[in-house]
Amino acid sequence: MNHRSTPPLRRPALATQLAAWGLATMACTAPVCAQAFEVPAARSGPRNLFDIGLWQATQDHRVQAGLRNSTFSGGLGEAFSLESDFGLRRKSDITTLGYTRLIGLAWHLSVDRLENERRATTATQRNLLIFGQTVPAGTVVSPTQRFSYTSVAGGLALLQRGDTEFGVRFGGGSVRDRVRYQLPSASYQSNLLNADLLPLLGLFFSARPAATLHVDARVDHLRERSSRSTHLRAGLRWQPSPYIGVEAAYWRLSGTSTPDDDIFGGNEEGRYQLSGPRVAVRLAF
After folding, report:
1. Which helix (H) or strand (E) holds 39?
2. Where does the signal sequence lie (predicted)?
3. 87-140 pLDDT, tens per residue?
4. Cut 0.85: pTM above it
5. In the chain, at which residue ranges do the beta strands (DSSP E only) sit?
6. Close Cβ partners of 89 (under 8 Å, ≥ 6 residues apart)
7. Domains detected in the chain
8. Which residues contact 62 (CB under 8 A, 6 or more apart)?
9. Residue partners of 217: CB distance under 8 A and separation at least 6
């Protein structure tokens, strides 16, 4: 039997109401704050910002295929590690893509995307219980994992002073995690799939302490019902020209993905954490 979890329709009512309330409040108060502290020349440079980076991420990914509080009839399961038990490498070089459009004196729109695929063939080091099926120690498995993260968010600078900005972000994001594996005794490939569409709220900060040195920090929190994700990034950017710069930063992406407890959801839970340094090139025009 091919275990598959079809992602349910999300209804993030509370988070959506909070986001709408926050947006309405900011739309009324932000122009006053921005005008009070804004220096007109702060955004006199290029408006379109592209960055491509290489993230050296250390991963810790745990899965429990089979939850006791689910109505899905796939069987119970115990938590196992994709790295320790399934042999997937912990360190990965992940390409990241980003685009930011500066709008007016206080707004911005950003899109971020990353995707990573890992493969391995290994013998399990201990007995595993997956959807009610025991996988004995020494069983050879060949797992493949594909993990992706996408976010689209608007930002509004509530405070501006020279080249320093502090503000809020709001939007949405997608986290998709698929694990495929096949046991020697099975003639089919099993799938564990979690896919979430989550509302996003966050904060951002940027400053220029020196003529060619910039500081950027951002934290985005995505959550609804039983799934959540947090993306933290902070770094320094050397920008000798308005049109090109190099950034060194620390990124951390962590969260939990659990299908809603209904007959249409699956009953596996995924917990993930990716963290490490990232180097990127920024192009602007």
Report:
1. none
2. 1-34
3. 999 999 999 999 999 999 999 999 999 999 999 999 999 999 888 788 899 999
4. no
5. 48-65, 79-81, 91-103, 107-119, 122-123, 128-130, 133-135, 140-141, 144-161, 164-181, 190-210, 213-224, 227-241, 244-257, 268-284
6. 83, 118, 120
7. 13-284 (2.40.128.90)
8. 79, 80, 81, 82, 270, 271, 272
9. 204, 205, 206, 233, 234, 235
